[in-house]
Amino acid sequence: MGSDLRDRLRYWRSRAGLTQKQLAAAIGIDAASITRWQQGDVVPTTTRLLQVAEACGVDMVTFWGPMPEAPADVDEGAA
Fold first, then answer.
1. Contact indicator for 22, 76 with CB cutoff of 8 Å
2. What rounded mean pLDDT belongs to the chain?
3. What distances in angstroms separate CA 6 from CA 31, 64, one per listed residue?
4. Among the listed residues 69, 47, 71, 50, the one whose alpha carbon sits nearest the alpha carbon of residue 61
5. Predicted confidence band of residue 2 (pLDDT cuts 50, 70, 90)
6. Residue among 23, 21, 1, 3 nearest 12 (CA)
7. What is the DSSP letter of 77?
């Protein structure tokens, strides 16, 4: 699941126009957790992945399905 999960987290977060900090706030965790997930240091629980997908405006089938063209990454420093 490693790099595929990292890529999907980054892709859907960016596609939703969310920074790591914004996504973290949307699901009630700290931004460092999002960073650790995207770096592959920690794997989020299924519950957290459901929350991520919802915050990004997709369901889990879409989250794990084929990814269209990747959007430009959202600036991590933005609030």
1. no
2. 88
3. 15, 12
4. 50
5. low
6. 23
7. T
Q: Which residues of 15-51 are buried (b: 16+ CB within 10 A; e: fewer)?
A: bbebbbbbbbbbbebeeebbeebbeeeeebeeebbeb
Residue pLDDT, tens place only, 58-71: 999 999 998 776 55
Give the integer Cα–Cα distance in Å for 78 and 57: 20
Is the per-residue pLDDT at 79 higher than 50? Answer: no
Residue by residue, DSSP assigns 4-73 as: HHHHHHHHHHHHTT--HHHHHHHHTS-HHHHHHHHHTSSPPPHHHHHHHHHHTT--HHHHHS---SPPPP
DSSP character at residue 79: -
pLDDT beyond 80 at 77: no
Q: What's the maximum distance between 2 C-alpha atoms anywhere in the chain?
A: 30
